[in-house]
Amino acid sequence: MADTLSYPQAVTYNRHIVLPQIDLEGQEALLNARVLIIGIGGLGCPAAQLLCSSGTGQLTLVDDDKVEASNLPRQLLFSRAQVGQFKVHAARDRLHELNPDCRIRTVNTRLDDEALRQAVSEHDLVLDCTDNPASRQQINAICYAQQRPLVSGAAIRFEGQLLMVDPLNHSPCYQCITRLFSEQELSCVEAGIFAPVVATIGTQQAHIALLWLMGKQVLPAGRLLTYDGLSLSWQQFTVPADPQCTVCQSIKTNK
Ligand SMILES: [Zn+2]
């Protein structure tokens, strides 16, 4: 049976509930939602913080890294005293202070295909907050195969991008856009990253995810949203499905 909001929870989330686009129904949908966040770095920290503080029922955090001093400018869940701790544990402790009602699970290992398939199947929505192309392709393929929506974010230097992949509506997928951008460009952490840019993209991942879980889709699946942090400008592109895509096209033709 679905959980309903307690009186203290209704008080906490009042500013959402008074919005007619959300209402009690949207907030209760969020209370019953399970979200898998892969990567608790510059994208995952703001995304997890907003999903937790906004009243998501369950979050699973996956990351095998430990907190380093160079993370602190943009990974605002972590304090200097937590350097050396696993990121998922440091994040869980901070998130628990924000919202003790949120059930938080942590995984401090990199998931192989089998483990990731299992994890994805146990959640309603997946956020890809990783920073390497191999993980992005793995998450995209498994979300498509498991028919779970995916909110993908990426940021480098002063640039960011967002993509929602919705296998249930046969949208183009992350692999379809990699032929438009060099994967090295998407993944090169060594090139530097301006802290507010990655925080903006992580925040937008939470924005898209929260509204999707509440029944509103603000970024149409298969539409690529890019952000230029030097001109503060956003652009949207409709991503054509790659007819040769081995992820989304093979699933379609198998149906
Ligand atoms: Zn595809």
UniProtKB/TrEMBL annotation:
GO terms for molecular function: nucleotidyltransferase activity. Residues 13-247 form the THIF-type NAD/FAD binding fold domain. SUPFAM superfamilies: Activating enzymes of the ubiquitin-like proteins. Keywords: Nucleotidyltransferase, Transferase. It holds the Pfam family ThiF. Transmembrane segments: none annotated. This is Molybdopterin-synthase adenylyltransferase MoeB. It comes from Alteromonas oceani. The lineage of its organism: Bacteria, Pseudomonadati, Pseudomonadota, Gammaproteobacteria, Alteromonadales. The gene is moeB.
